[in-house]
């Protein structure tokens, strides 16, 4: 065991000229080792790191491109929605204006219709009154005529003989028939 330890200790004292050996001085060897490791990493890892960065760059560019497309579509949809809103507002205004004019038109139509109906009712009332007056006048005429006829018949019956009486009755019957045809 002592031989192994001695061999390591003797390695630490090797002269640097012309031979390869281990330098056990930690402060002197760390920057050299780090620069070698970094150099090896840069030399061999350059392609991998470049690929990783290119992939990351492509993903970022694709994300930006997708975002721009989404933004464009959103702006397009917003413009369509605004156009639809303006159209609906115009239609609503038109319906409102048309509704008001339609209401006014219906109001005047209703007033005119009601006025015509009232006028017709007034005419019917006047016609009914005239008809009833005419009927009442005709009834009064008939009664007066019947009473006059009965009075005349009573007078004639008391004053006339049988033959004259029959002629008078026939004449009156003829007159009544003629009056009945006139009234019918």
UniProtKB/TrEMBL annotation:
| Top-level taxon | Eukaryota
Name the coiled-coil region(s).
64-98
Q: Which Pfam families did the record assign? A: ATP-synt_B
Broad class of the protein's primary localization: membrane
Task: Quote the subcellular location field of this record.
Answer: Membrane; Plastid, Chloroplast thylakoid membrane
- The answer on whether this UniProt entry bears the keyword Transport reads yes
Q: Does the keyword Transmembrane apply?
A: yes
Q: What else is known?
A: In plastids the F-type ATPase is also known as CF(1)CF(0).
Q: How does it assemble?
A: F-type ATPases have 2 components, F(1) - the catalytic core - and F(0) - the membrane proton channel. F(1) has five subunits: alpha(3), beta(3), gamma(1), delta(1), epsilon(1). F(0) has four main subunits: a(1), b(1), b'(1) and c(10-14). The alpha and beta chains form an alternating ring which encloses part of the gamma chain. F(1) is attached to F(0) by a central stalk formed by the gamma and epsilon chains, while a peripheral stalk is formed by the delta, b and b' chains.
Recorded hits in PANTHER family, A to Z, give:
ATP SYNTHASE SUBUNIT B, CHLOROPLASTIC
What protein am I looking at? ATP synthase subunit b, chloroplastic
